[in-house]
Request: fold
Amino acid sequence: MSENIAKTKQGGLAGIIAGESKICTCGLGNGLNYYGYDIKDLAANCEFEEVAYLLNRGELPNERELIDFRRVIKAQRGLSKELKDLIRAVPKSANPMNLMQLVVSALGALEPEKDNFSNQNEKIARLLGVLPSALCYWYHWVSYGEEIEFNTDYESIAGYFLSNLRQKEPKEDYIKALNCSLILYAEHEFNASTFTARVCASTRSDIFSAVAAAIGSLRGPLHGGANEAAMHLIESFDSVEDAIIGVNNMLERKELLMGFGHRVYGVGGDPRNAIIKEWSRKLGGDTDLFKVSEAIEMVMKDKKPNLPPNADFYSASCYHFMGIPTDLFTPIFVLSRVSGWTAHIKEQRANNKLIRPNSLYIGPEPREFVPMGERK
Ligand code: COA
Reply:
């Protein structure tokens, strides 16, 4: 007990084992594995849907299973009139993460999960299928005042999303890069949003409530919002020289540089970074923006070697080079991480115990109640 209290005092539950999971190892030997498969192998060889299947079932699909899984997700892309009406009511000024939360909550109201969770897999397919549609529909409505005609040619979520976002055929490399990024973002053990989802699921709540709660946690710049914050940081510098001076000044002022550092990975860094950095280089390596990104990384390596870039830093430029608007970066994270959240919700449900820790009380000693008339 006293050791637990000492750890709690470090803050943020750092280093606390908060439960068992078979889904992912994060930071063991600086590795990242989904159900035992190295993220490097998954990113190099898989489609995102293969990885979503792995997270959902615990095994990679064979060819037939992957075709079926994709077909099921594809059939779940449609937006009902009620959903469209709700989405159109969300103004352009809104944070798109609130849109994502609204859509997920609306699904809970309009297409509820059964109380015994027997249709949880159908609901997971619904989330994987419909969220890209909702985001593209909203983006076009608030940007151009138009309801888009969905291009349904693409089987993959990456191709479907990009073709509908841009309303044109995406370059093959863009689809591959987004596919890779979705794999990298899919799962990450007991991170803040996944833990939120598990806490909510542990009360035996429905899957939509647990996912909506997780989206709220992902929104913050210390978590998923870091990819957008990293983009703003990179774009705030006009040149490599400007970036070197600017980052040094920020460090002197003890400001946070978004896209650097990680609670679990040590100096060895986030294994996802090298993978997404290569995609960023491939899509925009000759641009000033990429050179500025590398200059920021170089100063950080020099001044803060214990804070290497995390997956969010080069995801930012990678998405930017694909022509994705910055305020959609974190919602894209949702399109991917929903596979990890729902895997954890299923795991939590399979062996549920209400998650309800204690706090270490540091408030006032018991004291006499003061009636209203006697209060100062
Ligand atoms: N830039 C500058 N300094 C940083 C930093 C960063 N990105 N990340 C951590 N630090 C500094 C902290 O200011 C702190 O300094 P101090 O000891 O002088 O107070 C020290 O490093 C330890 O950081 P701390 O915030 O206690 O670590 P943590 O484990 O709680 O935080 C993160 C982990 C990810 C929240 C943190 O590194 C961060 O805020 N990074 C930027 C946001 C980000 O990229 N999030 C995405 C994560 S995948």
User: Anything to note?
Assistant: The domain at 226-322 is CATH 1.10.230.10 (Cytochrome p450-Terp; domain 2).
